[in-house]
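Help!! Second protein's tokens look totally different from the first
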Amino acid sequence: MDVSIDNSDKAILRELQKDASISNLELSKKIGLSPSACLTRTKNLRESGMIKQFTILVDEKKLGMEMQAFALVNLVNMKQETIEAFLKDVQRFPQIQECYTLTGSHDYLMKIVARDTQTYRDFVINSLTSNAAVDTVETLVVLGVDKRTTAIPVEVSEKKGK
């Protein structure tokens, strides 16, 4: 369902993506709306599904997760029951942060965090590939993070000459 939003809604989305803990009063001042109008618009954006959730980002390294990797996974086949068995397992493992279905030569791409390479290895061998649906796993180890964002670009139509 497409939701129609105006520049004020887009401004709310931009600001909340920067800091979801901002108070409604501070948000209303930043975007130039009354607090009640701002609260109503934020509530409408949430109810429409435009805002999925409010969350925090945790520094994984401060929790001892020194390793990040991307795993390219191929299943033994792409039958519905195989896919369902695989995805059920994926949901059980908190170290799998993201999982995407792909086109091309791999079936899935997963972002995985681990304490170290040994912990990652143990996870792949004892958990991931123990699922009969998994055929192959190719690991790409992250050496450094050069850009990370969760913000979706919110384009605002600006009038020329301003």
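Here's the second one for comparison:
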Amino acid sequence: MTVHIAIPILREFSNIPHLISDMECQDYNDIRCWFCVNNPEEWHEDVTRAADLEDNRKTLDYLNGMGEKYTVIDKSSQGRAFPLKNSGVGWARKVLFDEIAAVVDDNDLIISMDADTRFGMDYVSSVAQNFSRHRNVMALCVPYCHPLTGDEKQDFGILRYELYMRHYMVNMLRINNPYAFTALGSAMAFPVKSYRKVRGITPRQSGEDFYLLQKFRKSGELLLWNDSHVYPMGRCSDRVAFGTGPALIKGLNGDWSSYPFYNPQLFDEVKQTFDSFGSLYHADIEMPMTQFLKNVFKTDDLWSPLRKNYTTEKAFIHACMVKVDALRILQYLRYRQQFVGTYSVEITQAERERLYHIENELRKSHDNIIQ
């Protein structure tokens, strides 16, 4: 089984030596590394982007000629870069995943990575062993932890954002929701056959990892535990529209409104809705999410079309799960939060560690029932 590590790169030259060092230390032998150095073509006409272009040029010079184990895709140089409307990390990941999927075997693995992420020497082997034990799963969401920097303000931002993600994940695991996953482009892996089955990634300037994992989950099971973890850098960055970098910029300027701690009772409402799908097969019933879903889908007749198309209760329940997906759950939580008020979480390293361990135990429990 060959493992292909796919890494989009923009303005990452200072991190490349650390990345290559981690790659070269792996205890798994059959590895290929794929890089997409990228930026919009329009940057070549923008003097304010000269430093970014120079950083990418130095990265290309560094990576080129490193041997057949390393494949470098140049989407940065003039005449080769992305058009502005089709640029960003989502397009870079699509180029990487599609290039890999076009030439490798079904059972080969793709590990999605970022250039600023550190990982141990056993990381690739642990992922490969995980998929060898679970041959029918669609993908793996790898446990993660952001290293702290020693800068008090920066570390507060990292902890605040990570606690937002962990609070959400722990509650989704607590209610046993099928969309319990954390979407980090640096912390996911999948067999090539899974990628082909869902017909690839939908390119977006950001959030592409969330939508890809959602597609995987609608088609099968996700693994949530891996013995070896990843350690992505938490830093301010404007390279994507949302995610860790923009969250820190916005949050450190005093606005965490896009990353609230949702009241746990709202997750209970989601659970009540999902638990009602079996009853819905027989007749419409009122659920906590009913009115919200009618508003979102702009119809009062949410379920009878599914009953007509799915003639068994099991198929109907799955169709309901596909309809009320991870995006709809997030939208519902944001909608309802305004009515129930905020939920307080202590922003400390100790609280991060507490939730980190709780989440990891729940991840393990989740995977124990997956074959």
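Reply: Different proteins will give different token patterns, so don't panic. The radius of gyration is 21 Å.
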